[in-house]
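Hello, quick one for you while I still have it in my head. A protein chain has come my way and I'm curious about its shape. I'm sending you its amino acid sequence along with the backbone structure tokens. I'd be grateful if you could look everything over and explain what you see. Here's the protein in full, and shout if anything looks odd to you:
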Amino acid sequence: MDNINKTLYIPLRGKAFVSRKGIILNDPKAEEIWAAEGFPLKGKSRSRWLAYYMGMRSAVFDRWLRQQMEADPEAVVVHPGCGLDSRIARVGTQNHIWFDIDFPDVIAQRGRHYDASGSYNMLGSDIRSVNWSDVAAGGNAIVVMEGVSMYLSPDELIRTLSRICGHFEKVRILMDCYSEFAARASRYKNPINDVGVTQVYGIDDPKLLEKAGMRFVREHDMTPPELTDTLTGIEKKIFKTLFVGSVAAKMYRLYEFRK
């Protein structure tokens, strides 16, 4: 497994951590997989503050996905860069066809913990070269791209999104992005450095991605009060200093798009 793929252990550990504490995200599957697959993370990648952030980010994605699935019961759910994430267990298919997509070696590892079924599918492919005809016929799609965009150059990201938008009639996308400043800073100070990754990319203007054939809808809050308020005392104060407010917003954003 290459260094970029090893980054999947950072959110996996975070979700298992908060789930064990009984806050932010209920994710017993993450606890189970982390116990079986635990990777020797070090440095900032083991920070409890980062674990809280990973849990909150996933909880926000889950909530948005549930809302979109309820609004469109016929849509296909597409989860590129799924890693070992247990979103399928947390959200459920609700009779939607679901595709988890990641590099072949990641999907091979994932296959030790999940079984494909009539509605749940796992596809081993680089997101940049997915044969979308293998995913589903045209129609509507709900796409959750969590922790993916920063590993694609802006041109690669636009081409990837363009292929998604070209294949489906209607598309809803939620995607987190680094800012350009955060991408530059990540060469020197980012938890992903602890697994050997130094090259990432950022987007300052989400409307630049409209070149892919979709429109920017709005920005979402990755640390809403109802989640940050599950922390207390000094932990809450430290977390808010690190991950909430204008400084954090200059580094990391969450954008919704539609076609």
User: Anything to note?
Assistant: The longest strand covers residues 170-178.
